[in-house]
Amino acid sequence: MKKIIYSLILSLVVVSGLVFANREIKNEASKKSTSKPLSASERKAALKKWEATPDGIKYKEWEASPEGKKVYAGEAKIRKHISAFTNMEAVVTSLSLPPGSRLGFGVMVRINGDDYILSFGPEKSDKNFLNFNNEFQQLHSLKVDDKIIIRSHSVSHTPKYSYPIVSGDYVERDSKIIYKRAPRKGGC
Description:
The chain is α+β, with helices and mostly antiparallel strands and 188 residues long. The chain contains four helices and eight strands; from the N terminus they run ααααββββββββ. The chain has helices at residues 2-33, 40-51, 54-64, 66-84; strands at 88-94, 105-111, 114-121, 147-151, 155-156, 165-167, 170-173, 176-180.
């Protein structure tokens, strides 16, 4: 009987030691992966270093080009609406994005005389292919020359596209909401 009790106690000690050791390893790994945010001077130095790379040089050339200036001017025109998340009137000009686009589902729109990519992200379907539930279903009913109201939290750019990229967060047509981005889970 004593041998059984000693073996149980010994196995308990070994198992708890392994669990404790595993916890320490995980804590060390999480401490290593969580790095301090860069200071302003460190960010500036990293940016200068990147600007000296071939990609950085290409990007700076694009920014200075007429095409890059046009994209930045388009962003500036809607910046107030983006910051305040207010309505922007738009007209759908194309139901497809530029060739070679990797932005997911989106359409081309014209806002105040300038063209923009209105991007919604990748399309997702339900896991059961018979129950195809697509969050963009009503957006597929859009037609060229439809007048819509959009709201967005962000506008971006990339040298690959000749247009600013507006993230579609809210779309309304004929006073009916046809798309509203769901809030992120676990975020604010």
